[in-house]
Design a protein that fits this description.
By secondary structure, the protein is mostly helical. It contains three helices and no strands. It has helices at about 1-20, 25-55, 55-90. Helix 1 runs antiparallel to helix 2 (about 25-55) and helix 2 (about 25-55) runs antiparallel to helix 3. The longest helix is centred in the C-terminal third of the chain and has 32 residues, at about 55-90. The termini are far apart.
């Protein structure tokens, strides 16, 4: 748990450095996305620990697959949050600037 907290704090610190020139909306979205990813990783880590502790190989595999899915879902949701944050300001501060075709 301590490792996860340190990792989350590090991510937020790095996000602050990388946020120079970003809008407040982008910064908020990035912070929210980081929190989503950290929570997904923490949940996946718990599932993987359960998998490692079980003597049942089928259950171990199922828990590891569930952990992978939780992490993938969290990453996907975090990407959506960041995308929406970038679009909120018209994409002016992100690489996802809308095009007009």
């Amino acid at each position: 748990m301590k490792k996860i907290a340190i990792a989350a704090v590090s991510l937020f610190a790095l996000a602050g450095v990388a946020a120079c020139g970003e809008s407040a909306t982008d910064q908020a979205a990035e912070s929210q996305a980081d929190a989503i990813e950290a929570q997904g990783e923490a949940t996946a880590d718990q599932l993987e620990a359960q998998a490692a502790a079980t003597p049942n190989e089928a259950q171990e595999q199922a828990l590891n697959e569930q952990a992978d899915q939780v992490e993938e879902n969290a990453d996907r949701r975090a990407d959506q949050v960041e995308q929406q944050g970038g679009n909120a300001d018209g994409g002016m501060t992100t690489s996802n600037t809308p095009t007009q075709h």
